[in-house]
Amino acid sequence: MPSIMLPIVAAQINGDFIALPARIDRGLAAGALLFANDQTESAVWTFKMPANYVGSLTAKIQYSMASATSGKVDFEVEVMAVSDGDSQDVDSASFDSVNEISGGTTVPGTAGYLDEISVPLTNNDSISAGDLVTIRVNRDHDDADDTASGDAEVRAINLEYTA
Q1: Between the chain's N and C termini, which has fewer beta carbons within 10 Å?
Q2: pLDDT tens digits, residue range 30-50?
Q3: CATH number of the domain within which 116 lies
Q4: Is 76 helix (H, G, I), strand (E, B) or coil?
Q5: 153 Cβ contact partners less than 8 Å away, ≥ 6 residues apart
Q6: pTM attached to this predicted model
Q7: Domain extent for 30
């Protein structure tokens, strides 16, 4: 299945699309985005959707926990797609409804252990091949489904799609 890697160190963590930024920790192995448990933090990536995209977009988020060994995390993924000729200002946030895993995801029983969450991006702003796409990832700290303490360390994000 084709995929698009969203490099951690290339995440946009400031600007108009972010109220509170995740933090980039370059001291961890290959770097990580740190999402706190006490505020909804975000990171953003923008790219051109490949010409072979036909549908079925899924975000694969690999993460570990800095200290938590119990509880759940809840990540939200939002999509904004702008086609050539659209009447849409690319500098104005116009994200589709959030995509998330209902009920959150149970964290690994040992801090630092890797887990992967698959989030189907069914709310995808009618994305099509060639669109300018912006992806925003948030930790939804105030959702009842996010109960894990401490930072969630996002290690990798990959978007898989059907060609």
Answers
A1: N
A2: 789 999 999 999 999 999 999
A3: 2.60.120.260
A4: strand
A5: 25, 28, 32, 33, 34, 35, 63, 64, 65, 66
A6: 0.95
A7: 3-88+96-162
Give me the amino acid identity at 72: K
**What sign does the dihedral 82-85-91-97 (CA atoms) show?**
negative
- Contact assessment for residue 139 and residue 35, using Cβ atoms and an 8 Å cutoff: yes
8 A C-beta contact, residue 66 and residue 114 = no
Q: CA–CA separation, 117 vs 59, rounded Å? A: 8
Q: Which long-range contacts (CB under 8 A, 24 or more apart) does 21-30 make?
A: 22/137, 22/139, 22/154, 25/153, 28/153, 28/155, 29/155, 30/155, 30/156
Residue range 131-147, pLDDT digits in tens? 999 999 999 988 899 99
